[in-house]
Give the backbone structure.
Amino acid sequence: MKAARFYGAGQPIRIDEVPYPEAGPGEVVVRIAACGICGSDVHFLEGLEPPAPLPLTLGHEPAGIVESVGEDVHTCMPGDRVALHVGNGCGTCRICMAGHPTSCPSIKCPGLHIDGAFAEAVLIAQNCIVPVPDGVSLAAAAVATDCVATPYHALKCRAQIEDRARVAVIGAGGLGLQGVALARVLGADQVVAVDVSELALDRARRAGANATILSKPGEDVGARIQQLTDGGADVVLECVGLPDTVAIGAAALRPGGRLVVVGVGMEPPRVDIPMAFFAVFELTILGSFGSHVRDLKEVLRLAADGRIDIEHTISHRLSLDEVPEGLEMLRTKKGDPQRIVVEPES
Ligand SMILES: [Zn+2]
Ligand SMILES: [Zn+2]
């Protein structure tokens, strides 16, 4: 079968012919209908090497149809429409038992640790399979696996957003935009979106933000959020991953507020608050990565019930041969891409 493979930073993605996967015990082969292209795929090309021997088939946001199942598979049957929750841990180690399966030391995510879903089919463990409800397209389900489930997990499970919350979302790109919509669905009264692009803020307003801040150099965005939320945000969702945006997020909190960092950056975070204030105001800074299977089930249910719109965020649909162009489009932002999905059968 055809697969789009990564050979190392700075090297072109190649469309190779690779063996069709075969399901062993507890494993499932899924024929890919759609797989989202993610910012992390672009990070790999730019030098953040995936933790796997190369070459590696990329693609970690897949949905498709179950083709075959191995022995002892009870979660699905051939023909089922499914989304793949690639970031699921072993379920039995100390970290998984403590409730952090995405940090499981023996995790094997397709597209990161093992061959992924920019291919005609992918092999996956049965505990990663989530059924897609009627009325949700497989392309929307693919986008849900990461771009929607990740901010949902951050807001609901990590920050434990409360009803009528005042929320700030820093960075209104893919994840942030979904974060704006999800904050409203999860009961937020007020959502302030922050970005450097007027276009992104426009989308954020349409997704449910009732205030926006166009961030410019030298502007005290934290103070602006304090003012707009009348005393600080209950929850700040940071989707950029830069020291500056983390500092803004921490400065925007009300006493007892929670800053949840979803952005992935390699620099240390910065917090410009005197330690005494940090203690006195009982502030919390949380990391959040990916989501749990339950989160994916819940966002697919929200999509099926029409409470969130994923379909309209898909701006480009590409074939497998066009994966290199898709990655380049996401890197340069040329053509204003939002979510790009690869549809191997198109
Ligand atoms: Zn991703
Ligand atoms: Zn584990």
In short: The pocket of zinc ion (ligand 2) is lined by residues 89-90, 93, 95-96, 104, 106 (CB under 6 Å).
